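Dear all,

This email documents one entry for the complex benchmark we are building for the journal club exercise. For each entry we list the sequence lines for every component of the assembly. Then comes the predicted three-dimensional structure of the complex as a token string, followed by one or two observations. Please use this as the template for your own entries, and keep the labels exactly as they appear.
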Amino acid sequence: MYKGGQQPTIKGAQPKKEADVVVLQGPYPYRLSFYDRPPLYDVTIEDFETFALDRLRILAEIEASYARNRSWDELRTVTEAQCKKYDLWLSSNTARSQFIDLERKKDHLSHFVLRLAFCRSEELRRRFVKAETTLFRVRYEKDDTKELTQFLSSQDFGWEKVDPPEKATYESELRALLPNVGDKEFKDIVFYKVKWTRVPDLVAKRRVFLRRGQAFVPTTLQASIVFHAFETQLEKALERTAKGLPRLDEDTRIVPILNNLSQGFLAGVPSEWTNATPTMDGELRAEMVDGLAKKHFPMCMRNLHESLMRDHHLKHFGRLQYGLFLKVLGLSIEEAVAFWRKSFSSITDDKFNKEYKYNIRHSYGLEGKRANYPAKSCQQILLSDQPGPSDCHGCPYRHFAPDNLQTSLLTYYSNQGLTSSNLPEIMKTVKEGHYHVACTRVFEITHTSKGVEKGQGIGSGESVTHPNQYAARSRELEKPQEGGTSSDTAMVVG
Amino acid sequence: MALDSDNEVTPEVMLAFYRLLYPFHSLFTWLNQGQIPTKLFTQREFAFTLAGDVYLRYHSFMSAEELKKQVLAFNPTRFEIGPMYSARPKDRKTVRPSAFTPLLRELVFDIDMTDYDAIRTCCSSADICARCWAFIAAAVRVLDTTLREQFGFRHMLWVYSGRRGIHLWISDADALELTDEQRRALVASLTVIEGGKDMHKKVNVRFTKQSPLPPALWGARETLNDRFGELILRNQDCFASQEGWEALLRLVSDGGIAETLREEWTGSKISSIDKWLRLRELAKGSKSLTSAVFEDILLQYTYPRIDAEVSKHRNHLLKAPFCVHPKTGRVCVPVDPSRIDEFDPVKVPTVGQLLRELNEAGEGADWQKTSLKPYVDLFDQHTKGIMNEVRLAKMKASANDVQDW
């Protein structure tokens, strides 16, 4: 199946023998792998499919963890459990397990089968790379230190040790990178020089010292180089595979399996709030937005709405965040154009049609690449497209100064029952960085009259993870309670 | 600003400018990085803005002459330059969408005076004066040094944007090859001012509250420290108005001191300098008002505010050098970063002035006879540096080939 593919030579030759390190001969000397050699042996069609399915289950769990905002520790525990369930955790060399080679073969083969299934589109490649890199990282962090060193020396990462004189020259800079490290410890820390492009994540966080394009990376952050190398190698390999795939010398057995696999991956993560929901009570019209905003919108959207009403304008990311939210809320394209036209009252028709209408239609998938863009989730609002100096978008709980946040909370929600006595509690959670908790609490307070109690969140104790979820639940609560219609949301009617 | 005849930009003036003055050949060599047309030019996207805001994308040309011909035919108000794609942009409909992707692109930056509206006191929005240009000058100094010393770039071209900002184009081979991810990372490391309108403290760069400033910002700290007094206190007088000093006090971490100063300053006519000195004096006796707080204030008021979106993606378009700004009539000329403090946007030649000079120089004259000459020379000099390096790299590559052979 990999005819014509180049087989890279193995670098670094045989690892040196050390007293307490078990060196394995054979095709899989290490537990970790960069998957730089394709499997060149016969496999049964059953193994081909079942191995891949097992790996897919692990990757889907990783994706779900990201979607559910799990912490890294939780993700690691979950992934480790999944791996063990499907014999893909891989034993270390010292385990003396008779299955070492079998497990590693399964790992090797399943990885390459999934490459075939997921190389086909940019979207699939991106997701596959992210999930695989995470899996690699989880295994890496739990690897035996000595074996890890061996594995790393078998690869060429293009790093160079910073020699003592150079370390002394830049001592004050390097020390500033590690504020919590004492004098004695600092002596023992080794720095590596790599091209800065190999550690973009560390550069972005200013975690390395840069000089003439070289990044000085402390041992403690060395793993970043490894993960980034894994990621870029896999990206490149997938692109090569994508180019080669049309020439696959194929009988009719493999393609259906591959199709099946990639579909399974796509369906892996449920995304109930990402597509337009059918409206509950007839059509939503442009004129109704203002009323809804005052009753049902979470603070981020309320703030955008008020800014829009006040300034008769919103900057690009504000329009995007608010526009997609309204779309999912059920505003049709005609109504959306009407709403924005009305709101941008200080500009001419001509300017509106030229500069803004296209973007509105674009966000409804009627222009450009015609993609149906989902509304932004809390995670996206919190983490991507940070507001600049004169922007109004983002999450108020995170992006407002505390005193502005308090004033705005009172202005926006005091007629729904929020009083200044609630503020200390909200501000405390904000200070701790639990923005969604603060938002959920505001929801509870402002819906007390609908029978929502503290701790119930937006139903069954769930907290807010998507602005549309907040608005939808709020509207649902407002509907007359006709004998407890909605069965899935257990609710106390006060 | 009253428009005199020199500043007026009519279609006729633009056409004459493109026909007689625009340095197409210099632009070609700069983008192409050599005399013989390569993919760097032929697969490069050009986009044109025509009168009435008509926007035409995905044009590409085989030579400088062909580009000039098209520019004369369209007579655009301006044109923009995009990346080198994997195929010729004008043929993009004949290739598979996945086979048409941006490959190489200069690393570009855009600094615009509007991002400084919250702190500048002399002008607002589209206006600019020599006083607020000092913000741009500080930004140029910081970015120029940082990009050279930290990232090792060498071929950087600063271009005045024609009104109230400045662009930077980096043409090093390493810069052209950066992926979007790497561009994002680089921009993130250069973005210090964060948080929207409603966030008072916009500088949060420390690993922990009391840890030292990351070394990535040490160079900037040094440059800006020298300029803070002149720029913020004397020039802009940022803390004169109540709004101004209230903003400063919100950054003062010691509530007691902030309260004392609020009482002293309310209704007073104390100058920014004296207010600042008073604050420094009180800080000596305070535990929470450390030098870290002052470093953050320094950065918040003077650190470059770059328009990050422009730099993050390879396929972002940016106005070509030597275009004419339609509102001011000024030509977007290259600027020497070592003399940025002497640069006065008001003295940049306008298209009307250049055409007059050309007229006075007589028949057959070109830009050599006008005040555009020093700027084109600066541009050509810059290109020469790039071409030398390309040549060296090629020689090295062919030497390696011979060895491999």
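Observations: The mean pLDDT of chain B is 89. Chain B touches chain A at residues 53, 98, 115, 117-118, 149-153, 174, 178, 181-182, 184-186, 188-189, 193-202, 205, 207-208, 210-218, 250, 305, 308 (CB under 8 Å).
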